[in-house]
Design brief:
Distance between the termini: 6 Å
Number of strands: 0
Length: 367
């Protein structure tokens, strides 16, 4: 997630510079054939091309809206995780007491239980974000793009790519639980299952009454719900038929743009030539320069064609790079930073020690 007030335009140009160079080449070839080779028939009427451009604009807009909806839904889900984590910690702190215990335990033992449940919840947050950062087949083409890979290596770091999940979880669970977790596929679900089992044990010991036990179990159900919502976005891509056809239509329009713009610029050049006929002096430097520009005015279509192509392609690329909000891109939901913020918050609520510091992010990109 970018935290600057203004999105860095320089970075966008650097990110798309290879395509920008390609668009200039694609715009130059038709002009050479039209003006130098003399293929004056080589053009496309602007009216049907404008209709195609309008249709492509609607498709790009539809895709970007759908991508933003996926991103915003992911952010709302993790906002729910933030709130539910605080509620869970308050319940752990205030519901697990000696009030109904048959054999009361010491305050130090109570605090140890509180710490155990909160730390296990941090392990759940860790396991969930690692699962959400795993690569899916429809995400790999984005990560393997040279421009994306180059930007990632130079501008920001994804913690989940550098620190193994086993190393990240081990400080928050016991050795027995560690072996149990990694014997299963979905570690996040297993952690919530262990939490539920532990609550049952505490109820048996009389440290939680029936009503409080039910409330805490409902909170675990809420965590399962939020996890399932996150997995729904992660495991179901933006429909590939829409994404593929949108990509094809954008490139068809980009390839046709120079052929539609050339004739328009040629007409402008002819109009300039007709205006020059009223000049009294046709041998002055000013007249000759204007006449040369008018005769070759079609060459000004190159930067305009490249600009139009760049706008459509960049908007399509933005939608493509936003559709997967957990993949580890610079525009994703910052679940790593949010997990660390939740950890600091809930561990402070139980007066824990050795609380980690917030992450320090570079280049205004928060992951």
């Amino acid at each position: 997630m970018y935290t600057r007030r203004i999105f860095p335009v320089k970075g966008v140009i650097k990110w798309t510079r290879r395509y920008l160079f390609l668009f200039f080449i694609l715009a130059t070839i038709p002009v050479i054939l039209f003006d130098i080779v003399g293929l004056k028939w080589l053009h496309v009427p602007w009216l049907p091309l404008g209709v195609l451009g309008t249709a492509v604009a609607f498709l790009v807009s539809f895709k970007n809206n759908a991508s933003y909806d996926r991103l915003w839904e992911a952010r709302k889900i993790w906002g729910g995780i933030v709130n539910a984590s605080r509620s869970w910690t308050i319940q752990v702190k205030d519901f697990i007491t000696n009030q109904f215990a048959k054999n009361p335990i010491s305050e130090a033992e109570l605090h140890h239980i509180h710490k155990e449940l909160v730390h296990r919840h941090v392990a759940w947050l860790t396991a969930l974000r690692y699962q959400l950062r795993k690569d899916k087949p429809w995400e790999m083409h984005l990560k393997n793009k040279k421009s994306n890979k180059e930007f990632r290596e130079s501008q920001y770091l994804v913690c989940e790519d550098t620190i193994p999940i086993k190393e990240a979880i081990s400080p928050y669970v016991s050795d027995k639980e560690y072996d149990e977790l990694f014997a299963k596929v979905n570690q996040a679900s297993q952690i919530l299952g262990i939490q539920s089992r532990r609550l049952k044990e505490l109820k048996t010991l009389g440290l939680i009454d029936d009503f409080r036990h039910m409330e805490m179990e409902n909170m675990l159900v809420e965590f399962y719900t939020l996890q399932g919502k996150s997995e729904r976005i992660k495991n179901f891509p933006y429909p590939r038929q829409y994404a593929t056809m949108n990509y094809i239509f954008v490139w068809l329009f980009i390839l046709m743009i120079p052929y539609g713009i050339m004739e328009e610029f040629e007409s402008i050049g002819k109009h300039i030539m007709s205006e020059l006929t009223v000049h009294q002096s046709r041998t002055s430097w000013g007249h000759l320069i204007q006449e040369f520009i008018a005769k070759h005015f079609v060459w000004f279509s190159i930067p305009f064609s490249a600009l139009l192509a760049w706008v459509f392609h960049t908007m399509e690329a933005i939608g493509e790079n936003t559709e997967n909000p957990f993949e580890g891109g610079p525009n994703d939901v910052p679940i790593t930073n949010m997990s660390r913020g939740i950890e600091i918050d809930i561990r402070q609520l139980i007066d824990d020690t050795d609380i980690p510091e917030p992450y320090e992010w570079k280049n205004d990109i928060v992951m």
